[in-house]
C-alpha cells in the first residue's frame, strides 16, 4: 500500500471484499450483497436508491458546485462455481464463488466513494452497483431504471492476471468482443442400438455439426479478424443401447467485426440446413440475446489514461494489442453514452497466471488500492475537463 493512501480506507476495502467473497450471490439474487453495499453507503453518508431484488444500487455524491455528472460502475453477482482456493474467507455458500473479481470491484468502488466523500469534487459522481453482469444483461436493468439520465460519461474496470500488480490497461476503440448465444436442435429418429438402419442417429448428426461449424472460423473467416465459436453444452440420449432421436447443442459466438458476425450466423444456418438434408434429419437453429462489443470512446480513454498515469506512472499504463474475446455488458452503457473500460493487473509477483472463472482464482488485495485510487482520479479528471469546457459534455438521454 502506498504511504499516501488512506490506511483506514484500505483496511475497510479488505474487510468488505472478504465479506463479499464469503457470501456470493448469483445474478438477480444479490439481496444480501445490496444490503451490505447500502449499509456502507449509509455509513459514509452518501444517499442511494435501490430498485429491489434483481435491480441495482445507485448512489449519488453531489459536490457543493453544480457541474457535469460522471458514473462509476461495479458488478455485484458471482458465479455458479465450487471454490477451491482454500482461503480463510472462502465462500460459505456451496457451489457459489466470486471467481471473476466482482467482490474486489465492489470494494474498490466503495473505497473510491469514501475518498471522494472526504473531498467532493465540483459536479456529481454516481456509484453504480449493477446486478447480473454474468448473465450479460444486468447493465440494461440499470439503463432502463433511468438512474443514469444526464450522465456525461461512465467508467469501469476489471481485475485480471493478464497484467502484473500495479499495471493498468487503457485503450480506445474495441476492447472486447460481440457475444451471441445460440442453440441447435437436431431431430432424428430414435431406435435400437443394434439396428442403426432403422433410425436417424441425432448424436452422429450433432457430432458432424460440431466439427463442421468450426470451419466457419478456420476456413471462411479472415484470420486477421478474431472470432470464436464454442459449443459449451451437448445433450442427447437416454440409454447406452438406444440411438438418440434428439440432440441439443448450445454455444457462443465471439466476433469483433459486424461483417464477420453476420457471415458466421448465416453460415451456421446454412450448414445446419445442409446437414439436415444430408443425414435425413431436421435441424433448427435459434440465436439468443446478443451482447455488443465494448468500444471505448477516444475522449474518455484519454481521460482514463491521464488518471492512470498520475497514479502508477506512464511506464505502467499498458495498451491492448488485440481485443479480448470475452464479453462484457458494460458495452450497453457505451452504446448509450461515452465511457472507458480499463483493466487492473493483479498477477502475483511469482508470475503464476490463473484465469478468471477458475475455482482457484484469487487476487493480490493491494489491487484494491489501485482500483479505488483510479476511480477517484478518473472521476476528478473527467469532471475537471468537462467543466473547463475544453471537452464537450452535457448529459445524454439513455434508454
Task: Please supply descriptive tags for the structure shown above.
eight-stranded mixed beta sheet, 24% strand, Alpha-Beta Plaits, alpha/beta, 34% helix, four-stranded antiparallel beta sheet
Topology:
Layout: H1 7-22, H2 31-44, E1 48-50, E2 57-62, E3 69-75, H3 102-118, E4 124-130, H4 138-145, E5 153-164, E6 168-169, E7 173-176, E8 178-187, E9 191-192, H5 202-213, H6 215-218, E10 227-236, E11 242-243, E12 246-255, H7 258-279, E13 282-287, E14 294-296, H8 298-312, E15 317-318, H9 330-336, E16 339-347, H10 367-388
Helix pairs in contact: 1-3, 2-3, 3-10, 5-7, 8-10
What does this structure look like?
- This protein has an 8-stranded mixed sheet with strand order 1-2-4-3-5-16-6-15, with helices on both faces.
- The chain has helices at about 5-20, 30-45, 100-120, 140-145, 200-215, 215-220, 260-280, 300-310, 330-335, 365-390; strands at about 50, 55-60, 70-75, 125-130, 155-165, 170, 175, 180-185, 190, 225-235, 240-245, 245-255, 280-285, 295, 315-320, 340-345.
- Helix 2 packs parallel to helix 3 (about 100-120) and helix 5 (about 200-215) runs antiparallel to helix 7.
- Strand 1 (about 50) and strand 2 (about 55-60) form a beta hairpin.
- The protein is about 35% helix and about 25% strand.
- It has 2 domains: about 5-175 and about 295-390, Zn peptidases (Aminopeptidase, 3-Layer(aba) Sandwich), CATH 3.40.630; about 180-285, Alpha-Beta Plaits (2-Layer Sandwich).
- It is elongated, with a radius of gyration of 23 Å.
- It is built from 10 helices and 16 strands.
- By secondary structure, the protein is an alpha/beta fold.
Amino acid at each position: 500500500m502506498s504511504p499516501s493512501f488512506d490506511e483506514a480506507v484500505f483496511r475497510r476495502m479488505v474487510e468488505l471484499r472478504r465479506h463479499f467473497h464469503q457470501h456470493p450471490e448469483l445474478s438477480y439474487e444479490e439481496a444480501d450483497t445490496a444490503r451490505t453495499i447500502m449499509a456502507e453507503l449509509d455509513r459514509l453518508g452518501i444517499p442511494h436508491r435501490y430498485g429491489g431484488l434483481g435491480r441495482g444500487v445507485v448512489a449519488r455524491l453531489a459536490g457543493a458546485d453544480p457541474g457535469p455528472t460522471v458514473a462509476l460502475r461495479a458488478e455485484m453477482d458471482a458465479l455458479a462455481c465450487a471454490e477451491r482456493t482454500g482461503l480463510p474467507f472462502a465462500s460459505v455458500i456451496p457451489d457459489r464463488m466470486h471467481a471473476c473479481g466482482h467482490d474486489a470491484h465492489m470494494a474498490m468502488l466503495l473505497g473510491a466513494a469514501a475518498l471522494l466523500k472526504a473531498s467532493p469534487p465540483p459536479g456529481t459522481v454516481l456509484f453504480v452497483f449493477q446486478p447480473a453482469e454474468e448473465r450479460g444483461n444486468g447493465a440494461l436493468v440499470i439503463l432502463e431504471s433511468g438512474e443514469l439520465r444526464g450522465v456525461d460519461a461512465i467508467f469501469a474496470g476489471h481485475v485480471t492476471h493478464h497484467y502484473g500488480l500495479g499495471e493498468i490497461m487503457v485503450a480506445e476503440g474495441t476492447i472486447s468482443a460481440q457475444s451471441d448465444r445460440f442453440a441447435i436442435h437436431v431431430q432424428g429418429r430414435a431406435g435400437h442400438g443394434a439396428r442403426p438402419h432403422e433410425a436417424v442417429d441425432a448424436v452422429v448428426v450433432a457430432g458432424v455439426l460440431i466439427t463442421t461449424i468450426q470451419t466457419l472460423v478456420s476456413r471462411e473467416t479472415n484470420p486477421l479478424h478474431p472470432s470464436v465459436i464454442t459449443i459449451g453444452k451437448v445433450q442427447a440420449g437416454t440409454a447406452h443401447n438406444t440411438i438418440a432421436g434428439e440432440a441439443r447443442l448450445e454455444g457462443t459466438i465471439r466476433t469483433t467485426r459486424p461483417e464477420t458476425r453476420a457471415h458466421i450466423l448465416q453460415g451456421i444456418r446454412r450448414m445446419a440446413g445442409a446437414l439436415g438434408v444430408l443425414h435425413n434429419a431436421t435441424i433448427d437453429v435459434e440465436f439468443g440475446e446478443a451482447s455488443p462489443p465494448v468500444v471505448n470512446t477516444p475522449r474518455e480513454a484519454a481521460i482514463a489514461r491521464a488518471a492512470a498515469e498520475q497514479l502508477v506512472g506512464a511506464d505502467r499504463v499498458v495498451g491492448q494489442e488485440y481485443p479480448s474475446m470475452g464479453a462484457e455488458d458494460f458495452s450497453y452503457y457505451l452504446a448509450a453514452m461515452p465511457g472507458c473500460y480499463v483493466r487492473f493487473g493483479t498477477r502475483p509477483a511469482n508470475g503464476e497466471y490463473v484465469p478468471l472463472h477458475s475455482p482457484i482464482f484469487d487476487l493480490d488485495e493491494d489491487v484494491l488500492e489501485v482500483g479505488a485510487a483510479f476511480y477517484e482520479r478518473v472521476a476528478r479528471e473527467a469532471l475537471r475537463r468537462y467543466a473547463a469546457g475544453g471537452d464537450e459534455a452535457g448529459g445524454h438521454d439513455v434508454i
